[in-house]
Design goal:
Length: about 450
């Protein structure tokens, strides 16, 4: 299927009702300042194109008529939210939908596009996709064929045989021995790659398609059938192969791993970001702190009665470990990032904002707001020259991307405001384009 026809699959029925202008002037807002953990005095903010051109307490005069003015009424202007561990395709679909013999690309892509639009309307203006057939959706969003957040794509996950990315059904045999790729591989969900040469090829394939970072499965998982949670996956040489290929392209490798053994091997091989890690010990966290390795954590909940018994059992040590890892990693000064990692449970997506509130067990409101904006943005830009959006993110500053939320209230005092975006996010802007505006506007 050609790219043009793939993009057409992502056009959704929802349309933007606000005329786009080159400039947006937001007047009388108090800006969330991460450095002082406070709101500024009333400010005016001029957006020109995709970036913030000027911020001033004084009146900003704008030349020409091509400007949309927004009266902020003293409300809070903050950066767009960032989730650094999403699966835009697999988070929008159930396993039954994906495996259904009646499923068509059209029906699946409609669900995915609707999910991307909903995520943007929840205030998430940037995400890092942690594995899946993401490139057509990203292209459609960038081409304004559909609405959604900026996407840092990993492409297909890279997994060993019997690893966390081996999603073969029982009747699907090994590609190496029987010559036929699995359905998941054909869909662009995963590469089952064994040995240094295959890992190099899989990594380079993802980079060829535009991956901004590489996702490698380095340990057991809870949503995969063949691998116990405690197993270590990939040899040092295999992980090092992915790291070498990624670094040659100026970017990095992120790994799925929970245990100290798997994480320490990945760090020794040169990996820069650990995804999950809820079972880590103090020794491993100290290594991460000393080497500046990111810990991209989630705060999972055991709240799905429909989950099969095997997966529930595999999740137990992960759920038990996260209450220890979050505060210990904070205490040790590990670089922390936050994401949701919803997978094959689209009903959870509407709770994306509420999951942020669960960080209040370990962090102040100011620390949380900084983590889900500025800190997460720093992790995104670890992609360096491979970043698809190389500008400044996660802050409301001059020359930064105009990814902005106007919040009805002060989230520093009441973080629950961000858990109801439909009510409390009265303006949503991404890249200078207004996607929601329930204030009175004038042009």
């Amino acid at each position: 299927m050609k790219l043009k026809s793939i993009l057409a699959l992502f056009v959704v029925s929802t349309t933007i009702t606000f005329a786009q202008t080159k400039q947006v002037l937001i007047e009388n807002v108090r800006i969330l300042n991460h450095e002082t953990a406070s709101l500024t005095e009333p400010m005016n903010v001029l957006v020109n194109g995709q970036t913030i051109e000027k911020i001033s307490p004084k009146t900003i005069s704008v030349k020409g008529n091509d400007v949309t003015k927004i009266n902020g009424q003293g409300k809070t202007l903050m950066p767009g939210l960032i989730d650094v561990h999403v699966h835009m395709v697999f988070g929008a679909l159930t396993m039954e939908q994906m495996m259904s013999p009646t499923a068509t690309p059209e029906s699946l892509m409609k669900e995915v596009a609707t999910g991307a639009h909903s995520m943007l309307m929840r205030g998430f203006t940037s995400v890092r996709d942690a594995g899946g057939p993401i490139f057509p959706l990203k292209a459609a969003i960038d081409a304004d064929k559909t609405a959604g957040p900026r996407i840092w794509p990993s492409g297909a996950t890279i997994s060993q045989t019997a690893g966390h990315g081996d999603f073969r059904t029982p009747n699907e045999r090994s590609r190496r021995f029987f010559g036929k790729p699995s359905r998941a591989e054909e869909m662009g969900a995963t590469f089952i790659a064994d040995g240094r040469d295959e890992v190099l090829t899989a990594t380079r394939e993802n980079l060829r398609f535009g991956a901004s970072q590489i996702k490698v499965m380095a340990g057991g998982g809870t949503s995969s059938a063949y691998d116990p949670i405690d197993v270590t996956q990939y040899t040092f040489d295999e992980i090092k192969a992915a790291v070498d290929a990624a670094e040659d392209w100026g970017t990095y490798v992120m790994v799925h791993a929970y245990t100290p053994r798997a994480v320490q091997r990945a760090i020794e091989a040169g990996v820069k970001s650990i995804e999950h890690g809820q079972m880590l010990d103090e020794e491993t966290l100290k290594i991460m702190k000393d080497k500046g390795i990111w810990l991209s954590l989630q705060n999972l909940m055991d709240n799905n009665d429909n989950m099969d018994a095997q997966r529930k059992e595999k999740r137990k040590p992960v759920l038990e470990g996260q209450d220890k890892v979050w505060p210990l990693a904070k205490q040790l000064g590990v670089k922390l990032a936050w994401g949701t990692d919803f997978l094959f449970e689209p009903e959870l997506n509407k709770e994306q904002n509420e999951y942020i509130l669960r960080l209040q067990k370990w962090f102040t409101n100011a620390e949380i707001l900084k983590m889900v904006t500025q800190d997460n943005a720093e992790l995104l830009q670890l992609s360096g020259l491979r970043s698809p959006y190389p500008g400044k993110l996660g802050v409301v500053e001059e020359n930064a991307y105009a990814d902005l939320l106007l919040v009805d209230g002060n989230p520093l005092k009441d973080l629950s405001l961000i858990a109801n975006p439909e009510k409390n996010f009265i303006v949503i802007i991404k890249g200078g384009k207004i996607y929601k505006n329930t204030t009175s506007t004038k042009k």
